[in-house]
């Protein structure tokens, strides 16, 4: 089955990957309600123009599995804790979206029936077709896999037209733009270039999945108002990773 796009070239259905750190704001950790309000307003703008939107959120603002493992915790246990952190972020975003009238469903890869629906592919697609934002929580439900990989996997399962990777910089640079004033922004990259150069787009498993299924990755700066919608509409911003 082909990816869901419109005849005008813009994406009809996309998956947005957010980091948990995007929710922190000025706090050292946790969730800033004002940041949530801003993100929710941007997502509402996307839904209002008829885009079908799915979201995957990391959990690094609450707990990061790799960090726990590096401090001596069992890696599988640490990763499960990280998955639960993504559930907390998903519920927070759902609450914020529903306060502004956006129908939202959280589907969890881990069974937590009291707070989220179980992940079922056809159910997720049906929610999207009904105009609801679908938030995929708990990663893939398996340890040793990142939320980047979960985003690529879910995007393929729902036949999204692209993965949107939200960051705090304008795209993918040849080196860290926060540390190097002469860093150069790449507007277009191939999957192979990302893998060979070790560029920090998404982890290698996620990039490889996208490459195998020809799923574009758009890396953009979400701190600039309206950029989520602009990226979906195909405007020239950020970095597009594709087969070339």
Describe this structure in words.
The protein is an alpha/beta fold and 244 residues long. It has a single domain (13-242), classed as 3-Layer(aba) Sandwich (Carbamate kinase). The protein is built from 8 helices and 11 strands. It has helices at 33-48, 65-70, 75-99, 121-129, 147-157, 191-197, 204-212, 227-232, and strands at 13-18, 52-57, 104-108, 117-118, 133-137, 162-167, 172-173, 185-186, 188-190, 217-221, 239-242. The strands form 2 sheets. Strands 4-3-5-2-1-6-10-11-9 form a 9-stranded mixed sheet, with helices on both faces. Strands 7-8 form a two-stranded antiparallel sheet. Helix 1 packs across helix 3 (75-99). It is globular, with a radius of gyration of 17 Å. The two termini are 22 Å apart. The model has no long low-confidence stretch (mean pLDDT 93).
What's the quick description here?
The protein is an alpha/beta fold and 244 residues long. It is built from eight helices and eleven strands. The strands form two sheets. Strands 4-3-5-2-1-6-10-11-9 form a nine-stranded mixed β-sheet, with helices on both faces. A two-stranded antiparallel ribbon has the order 7-8.
